[in-house]
Amino acid sequence: AIEAVGAREILDSRGNPTVEVEVLLDDGTVSRAAVPSGASTGAFEAYELRDGDENRYGGKGVLKAVAGVLDVLGPAIEGFDAADQRLVDAELIAADGTDNKSKVGANAILGVSLAVAKAAADSADLPLFRYLGGPNAHTLPVPLMNIINGGAHADTALDIQEFMVLPVGADTFADALRWGAEVYHALKSGLKKKGQSTGLGDEGGFAPDLPGARAALDFILEAIGTAGFSAGKDFLLGLDVAATEFFADGVYSFEKQKLTGDQLTEFWAGLVADYPLATIEDPLAEDDWDGYVHLTSELGDKVQIVGDDLFVTNPVRLQKGLDLKVANSILVKVNQIGTLTETLDAVSLAQRAGYTAILSHRSGETEDTTIADLAVATDSGQIKTGAPARSDRVAKYNQLLRIEEELGDAAVYAGRSAFPRAK
Ligand code: PGA
Ligand code: ZN
Fold first, then answer.
1. What is the pLDDT of residue 423?
2. Are 19 and 43 in contact (CB under 8 A)?
3. Any residues with CB less than 8 A from the CB of 100 and at least 6 apart, and which?
4. Among the options 22, 203, 245, 365, which is catalytic?
5. Quick one: which of 127, 132, 206, 145 has its CA closest to 382?
6. Which 3 state secondary structure label does DSSP give 148?
7. Tens of pLDDT along 204-238?
8. With pLDDT > 70 as the criterion, what percentage of the chain qualifies?
9. Cα of 128 to ligand 1 centre, how many Å?
10. Active site at which residues (predicted)?
11. Closest by alpha carbon to 379, among 338, 351, 409?
């Protein structure tokens, strides 16, 4: 049973404070979880509570959220069995009492929810992926590696937030990771040769000053070739457009043009025709439902269309998408919804409806590796956790290496099968 819950303020990968929680069980188990934080956040995400005290961390302190763990959430679940995750999470939600977790903060609630799951796994002496996924948890996800950063994650003019490489042709996760790292290094050389900056963005990808999507994709294709791989076979490509970030008053301000949603959709159709793109995330703004209906009917059978800001890991938003036939995939971020139970519910709802689900980091991360285990436990087949560089990103990839090793001969790498809609 849960005996005590502790919390502290720590730093995330951008140097901003975030919440870390420790749960103590009466058998002596102590387990810990840390909470990530986004930059290009969706308007419909659960509430991230920050202190607003300008004298500390520019107002971004999380001492109120820490106090919420100590004074409200901990006492609410003391005595609960840590294995009763659903009951624990329901109690946490009730203790907050608001629709969007704004009283105690989703950052406080998530930290407790994840630390309880880890404590239950540790107490049962099981790795987290096995505790959560049972005997069927054996598939290693394809890493969607973000190797060029733009948008809100870099100080460049590149509008698209993420350009990703997907090593689908590898036989194992370990090889997939190596392939991605080799392309990453080839890209660095290619950028350097053309006089481009090799400084990094928030998710460890390069942040060159490129004029647009096609220039970025061409650099990546060249890097794949230089590293000795074949684009379209060994690697597929992916984008996270994060289009909400350049949408205002009904207009998309994209690559120096003013576009309607349908015009932007035509641009994506052109890229899908010309490049081996398997996935496009948030190609339109988070509330452009009409635009999404049209885009999905045009492109939904050719490419994975992922709702991140669109669905915010929220079963209610996802259900609306299912009803309207909008997108065909959901990005899953634990702190967008705020409990493990609701996260798992969103994944189940998506998978039952034939949508893919991608476990994802945030641009602000910590050394916590929970999402690596979650990707295997939920059989998602895909994980998005940044470049194959920087410890906040690599921590998750390294955890997947350990999981693959632990599974031994039972391990299967999802590979191309994770992208049923790709050409
Ligand atoms: P965020 O970006 O964590 O800054 O929201 C990640 C994403 O948009 O997928
Ligand atoms: Zn996104």
1. 74
2. no
3. 45, 46, 47, 106
4. 203
5. 145
6. strand
7. 999 999 999 999 999 999 999 999 999 999 999 99
8. 100
9. 24
10. 203 (proton donor), 333 (proton acceptor)
11. 351
Phi, psi dihedrals of residue 282, rounded to the nearest 5° = 40, 55
Confidence of residue 178 (pLDDT cuts 50, 70, 90): very high
Residue 309 tokens, joined: 């800001």
Q: Do the Cβ atoms of 362 and 371 come closer than 8 Å?
A: no
Best of 244, 363, 392 to mutate for ligand 1, by most ligand atoms within 8 A of CB? Answer: 363
Q: Which residues, 6 or more positions from 114, have their beta carbon under 8 angstroms from its beta carbon?
A: 21, 33, 35, 334, 340, 368, 370
166 Cβ contact list (under 8 Å, min separation 6)? 142, 143, 144, 145, 235, 236, 237, 238, 278, 279, 419
Is the separation of the CB atoms in 167 and 418 below 8 Å? Answer: no
pLDDT at 111 over 90: yes
Q: Which two tokens stand for residue 70?
A: 């100590």
What is the reported pTM? 0.98
Taking the C-alpha atoms of residue 305 and residue 43, their distance in angstroms, rounded to an integer, is 19
- Of 60, 101, 333, 396, the active-site residue reads 333
β-strand partners of 358: 331
Alpha-carbon Rg for the chain, nearest whole angstrom, is 21
Catalytic residue list contains 203: yes
User: Which stretches of 131-266 are assigned E, i.e. beta strand?
Assistant: 139-140, 142-143, 145-149, 162-166, 236-240, 247-248, 251-254, 257-259
Q: 201 is written with which tokens?
A: 């963005």
Q: What angle do CA 88, 92, 97 make, to 5 degrees?
A: 145
**Residues comprising the chain, all counted:** 423
Distance, CA of 131 to CA of 124 (rounded, Å): 8
Report which secondary-structure segment, H or E, holds 345.
helix 340-352
> Which helix H or strand E contains 33, and what residues bound it?
strand 30-34
Establish whether 333 is a catalytic residue. Answer: yes
Closest to 237 (Cα-Cα) out of 189, 304, 156: 304
Q: Give 237's strand partners.
A: 165, 277
Tracing tokens 């990771």 back to the chain, one arrives at 177
110 contacts 335 by C-beta, under 8 angstroms: yes
Bridge partner residues of 148 (DSSP):
163, 206
Q: What is the largest CA-CA distance in the chain?
A: 62
CA angle 380, 384, 385 (to 5 degrees): 130
Mutate to test the pocket of ligand 1, among 146, 149, 308 (most ligand atoms within 8 A of CB): 308
CA dihedral 421, 253, 197, 215 (to 10 degrees): 50
